[in-house]
């Protein structure tokens, strides 16, 4: 019996095995199941062609939040400072936007979530955390596995593995929602039974992007954000 081990970076055909058009693509890669990257490896290139697989899928340009429909090839302008990178609709990507001098410095830095809506307005993604250097995740179950899920305007943060006992001591500072069709009337956050209005809310109609900042929500606790 063959057991497949998940690989963080893999060719397109691994994620889209039923689409024969992906088999010959050698210059694009999936990073997990959420991000598609097309590195520019030839000198003097000002434009690249990017295959966006999956008929019915949505792909968001990470830099501009512009959405592209899957199942086609698009031409994408590039410079020395840009690499085509797309987030798949229906996914949530967690990242730290600040930098540290070593792994230990990163442990308490806040996260930004990018929530890319699919055609049904839903999205989901996991965040795994441990101390980054020891085997305590294995020997003492010192890890945390959280799941962010969006459905009908509610973004939930929930634990998906109760065995984990790791206190991450970090927060979600802001959330970007991609594919929001209209400006909300209000955005609220609820944690530990306490409800508060989010005041740092920006909506960009041209790109359909909603940004909610100033949250300071503990990653390790259950909470929800509502878009009203």
Structure characterization notes:
One of its GO terms (biological process) is N-glycan processing. This is Glycosyl hydrolase family 31 C-terminal domain-containing protein. GO terms for molecular function: alpha-1,4-glucosidase activity. The chain has three helices and 20 strands. The protein is mainly beta. The strands form four sheets. It has a six-stranded antiparallel sheet with strand order 1-2-3-8-5-6. Strands 9, 10, 14, 17, 18 and 19 form a six-stranded mixed sheet that branches. Strand 17 (200-204) and strand 18 form a beta hairpin. The longest helix is centred in the first third of the chain and has 4 residues, at 12-15. The chain is globular. The chain starts with 8 loop residues before the first strand and ends with a strand.
Quickly describe the structure.
The chain is mostly beta strands and 228 residues long. The protein has 3 helices and 20 strands.
What attributes does this structure have?
single chain; 20 strands; 228 residues
Give the strand line-up of the largest sheet.
1-2-3-8-5-6
Strand count: 20
- Terminal Cα span: 49 Å
Mean pLDDT: 93
Percent of residues in beta strands? 35-45%
Helix content: under 10%
Structural class: mainly beta
Largest sheet: 6 strands, antiparallel
> What is the rounded Rg?
19 Å
Oligomer: single chain
Shape: globular
Report the order of strands and helices: EHEEEEEEEEHEEHEEEEEEEEE
What is the tally of helical segments? 3
- State the low-pLDDT regions, or none: none
